[in-house]
Amino acid sequence: MITYLLMSDVVGRVQRRHVLLGAATTLFGFSGCIAPFTSDGSLQEVNVELRNTDDGAQTFHLALETESGMLDWESHRVNAGADEPVTIAPDKDVTPVAVHGVVKDFAERVDILGVDELDENYCLQFHFWDSHPIDERPQLAQVADIEC
Question: Of 135 and 61, which is predicted with more confidence?
Answer without folding.
Answer: 61
